[in-house]
């Protein structure tokens, strides 16, 4: 008799990482039971931004239009001093990853509002059950599954749930991580920061600009959030403690120093934080995976903490769902940490260096070196925080991952056409599976019979991209209306690529189009 499972995946913690995990698994056909200790969304606005990569994940989940209605584009940032001198202003270039309208790369969010919309999306998705008020107190696993023990916060009653795998997204103090005996390694900066969230009462000049008040003693991050909210993040000076800022009246002098008055904003809430640079020694123990803050903590300066957790969950979901369906070998799960840890470390280091700049701890020579544009590169240079994502070697990829290689890169997402004239963003015509794309070439002609059989087993599609100046020749073709894709192929000297479901390039004809090994 087959063993009974209550769900394919148990998700422990139902914040942004758990939510995106639940949506990613469910939309790909896996059943989910999520456990969340609290009934209500955490009231404090922790994260302040998402970018075009995260929006592309929302697009894959079919929710990007809904999320876009509760967030706001953010396309400029500046540095200024307390005496009003503007040191630098930068406008971000349009996104290449396919966000709608003006194609912004970054969006301002108000996390509780966005999280509420994510919950509504999940409520309307089949295959997701959420048990609010259930605190997970035990996680045990064996060769075939995971048993989660949860305690009801109201009655104290305990229940057990059986799942094939589990995703622990229960935050920086993750009990699951502790139950598994996984250590959290790294440091915590002793500097204490006050985070002040306000409701906007009237507009002030350049309120929409992300502003860094540059000062060695009191640097400030000044952020316009969505839904009429605004935030300031300010370090306490030596000798100052939380006791000095208990009431709005005590907090107001900090805002007054930047020209704010009670006519401009109303203080909604404030809290105190320290910044962490920490990561779990491993992100997986057999059938249990760590994601988000349970796996890694970074300073806020790159705006990538929450987003990294969402990307963790999405990366794991497309692999694990195919393992559950028997389409991929379980060995592919080893690439989860191999792909995600380097990316998290990349953004952690950006955050650390960005924080040093904000706090004026970087010399002019260091700043010049940080901003130096590499010479003789194939890929056009962009600031690391704004550049399209690239996977490091060690993941589910075939071929070198380097400047001159297309492998590991996320494909741009222009508007393309099909053979009968339908015009859509690329992903809408690609679908959510594996796709081999040829540049004015049928990619099937570049495969051996064995290679094609392997891709066929994964349900791959085969599409040819034609220039808009030519006729299409068959049904399995797309038209490069904006001239983006064929130029992108040519830059890296390839005729065809194999795309993963997350739109990263897994292989190219330059390094061999066979299905990557595990």
UniProtKB/TrEMBL annotation:
Annotated source species: Actinomadura verrucosospora
Matching PANTHER family: 3-(3-HYDROXY-PHENYL)PROPIONATE/3-HYDROXYCINNAMIC ACID HYDROXYLASE, FAD-BINDING MONOOXYGENASE
SUPFAM superfamilies: FAD/NAD(P)-binding domain
Protein name: Monooxygenase
Entry keyword set: Monooxygenase, Oxidoreductase
Gene Ontology biological-process annotations: 3-(3-hydroxy)phenylpropionate catabolic process
An annotated Gene Ontology molecular function: 3-(3-hydroxyphenyl)propionate hydroxylase activity
Claim: Oxidoreductase is one of the keywords in the record: yes
A Pfam family this chain is assigned to: FAD_binding_3
Keyword Cell division assigned: no
The FAD-binding domain, residue ranges: 6-345
InterPro entries xrefs: FAD-bd (IPR002938), FAD/NAD-bd_sf (IPR036188), PheA/TfdB_FAD_monoxygenase (IPR050631)
């Amino acid at each position: 008799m087959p063993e009974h499972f209550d769900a394919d995946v148990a998700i422990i913690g139902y914040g942004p990482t758990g939510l995106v995990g639940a949506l990613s698994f469910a939309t790909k056909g896996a059943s989910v039971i999520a456990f969340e200790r609290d009934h209500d969304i955490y009231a404090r606005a922790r994260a302040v931004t998402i970018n075009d990569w995260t929006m592309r994940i929302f697009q894959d989940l079919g929710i990007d239009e809904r999320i876009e209605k509760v967030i706001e584009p953010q396309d400029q940032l500046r540095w200024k001093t307390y005496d009003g001198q503007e040191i630098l202003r930068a406008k971000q270039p349009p996104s290449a990853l396919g966000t709608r309208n003006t194609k912004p790369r970054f969006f301002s969010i108000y996390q509780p509002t966005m999280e509420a919309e994510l919950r509504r999306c999940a409520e309307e998705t089949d295959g997701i059950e959420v048990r609010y008020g259930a605190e997970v107190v035990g996680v045990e696993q064996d060769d075939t599954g995971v048993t989660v023990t949860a305690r009801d916060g109201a009655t104290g009653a305990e229940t057990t749930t059986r799942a094939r795998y589990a995703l622990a997204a229960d935050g920086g103090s993750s009990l699951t991580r502790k139950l598994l005996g996984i250590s959290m390694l790294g440091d915590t900066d002793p500097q204490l920061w006050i985070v002040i969230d306000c409701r906007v009462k009237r507009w002030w000049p350049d309120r929409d600009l992300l502003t860094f008040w540059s000062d060695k003693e009191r640097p400030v991050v000044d952020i316009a959030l969505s839904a009429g909210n605004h935030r300031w993040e300010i370090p306490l000076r030596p000798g100052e403690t939380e006791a000095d800022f208990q009431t709005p009246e005590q907090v107001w002098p900090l805002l007054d120093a930047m020209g704010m008055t009670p006519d401009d904003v109303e203080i909604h809430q404030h809290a105190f934080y320290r910044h962490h640079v920490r990561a779990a020694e491993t992100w997986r123990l057999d059938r249990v995976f760590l994601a988000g803050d349970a796996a890694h903590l970074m300073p806020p300066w790159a705006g990538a903490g929450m987003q990294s957790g969402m990307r963790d969950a999405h990366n794991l979901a497309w692999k694990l769902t195919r393992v559950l369906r028997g389409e991929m070998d379980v060995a592919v799960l080893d690439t989860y940490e191999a792909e995600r840890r380097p990316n998290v470390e990349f953004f952690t280091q950006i955050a650390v260096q960005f924080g040093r700049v904000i706090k004026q701890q970087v010399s002019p020579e260091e700043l010049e070196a940080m901003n130096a544009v590499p010479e003789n590169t194939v890929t056009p240079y962009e600031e690391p925080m704004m550049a399209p994502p690239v996977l490091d070697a060690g993941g589910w990829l075939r071929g070198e991952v380097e400047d001159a290689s297309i492998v590991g890169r996320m494909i741009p997402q222009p508007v393309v056409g099909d053979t009968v004239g339908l015009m859509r963003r690329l992903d809408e015509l690609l679908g959510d599976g594996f796709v081999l794309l040829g540049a004015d070439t049928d990619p099937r002609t570049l495969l051996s019979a064995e290679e094609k059989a392997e891709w066929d087993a994964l349900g791959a599609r085969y599409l040819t991209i034609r220039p808009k100046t030519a006729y299409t020749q068959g049904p399995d073709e797309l038209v490069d209306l904006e001239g983006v894709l064929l130029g992108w192929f040519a830059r890296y000297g390839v005729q065809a690529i194999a795309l993963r479901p997350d739109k990263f390039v897994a292989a190219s004809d330059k390094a061999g189009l066979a299905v990557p090994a595990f």
